[in-house]
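Supplementary Text 2. Reproducibility record for the structural model of the 370-residue chain.

All settings were left at their defaults, and a single model was retained for analysis rather than an ensemble. We include the record here because the model underlies the residue-level annotations in Supplementary Table 4.
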Amino acid sequence: MLLVAEPSLGEDEKAALAEVVDSGWITMGNRVRCFERAFAEEHHAADAVAVNSCTAGLHLVMQALEIGPGDEVLVPSLTFVATVNSVLYAGATPVFVDVESLDEPLVSWADAAAKCTARTKAVVIMHYAGYLADGDVWRDFARSRGLHLIEDAAHAVGLDRSAVFGDAAVFSFFGNKNMTTAEGGMVIARDQEILEKIKQMRSHGMTSGTLQRLSGHTLTYDVTMLGYNYRMDELRAAVGLVQLRNLRRWNEKRERLTGAYRKRLREHCPDVSVPFATQRASSHHILPVVLPKGANRPLVADRMREEGIQTSMHYPPIHRFSWYQSRFPAVCLPKTEEFCRRELTLPLHPKMEEGDVETVTGALAEALRW
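Retained model, structure tokens:
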């Protein structure tokens, strides 16, 4: 089966894990700190905080920015549910915003502006499929309204840009991401005080860690804030350090494969569109396509599976999930809903070659003929 996503793991990761096991120190040690510093340097940031998931990172950002009950947060519906869950964890209210268009399925500036109220405290921008939202536009949007700007950068690890433009950006290392630690995430913040607060909150609000106490820097600790158990362990950090060294090369491979997809789809499937026709910075995390109107997506997916090709959907719209629909029944996002009705995710990962792209696009063309 040619999978939609597949992690690249090998002997170097095995060796890194063995070193941690042999060391006898498996949580919140020097490897976590090395990983944070290396990741920050790769993303042109002064520092970073490693956590056990992107979800945890988003929650910590909400807490650190003091977003809570009575506040509203503008959010996309075209994202993984964790983006919106983190708003609710903080006690705030999510306000769903439509996308710009089927070709640009990123949060709409105009719809966000229309949904701002006196209670709006923040806006979450999600770099869907790894394509960078317009930082200048969103920075001006947030500043002019006195809002916090949060980047859900789960799809955008290793994206080639100067620096994060939001108050904070949160990255994911889940198994299907451009680099993985199995579970894990990273937070970058523009304000060092906010980042230090996040660092303390991820470990129960304690003022010192086990390694600091072992080294003799302090004997005890205080708890000065409500914290959480959102720490990353040494095993994941060791894998992350190895993965990070390969990230740039893997992203370049993804870019080449995406270019091949665009070319082959024009040839084999002219009625299928690939979002983001206008060039913009991207980590090329996934390959979403929009099927022609009236295409039977389940049938297309079944036919491709019969040919040994996995497809997926990114994503079902959050506001249409049962739990959310029962609480926010009046939400209507026509562009998001149309995109989600017709989107199909094709395989894209560094283990593929251009011959695989030819196979996938040929199978898609055949499936659409049924």
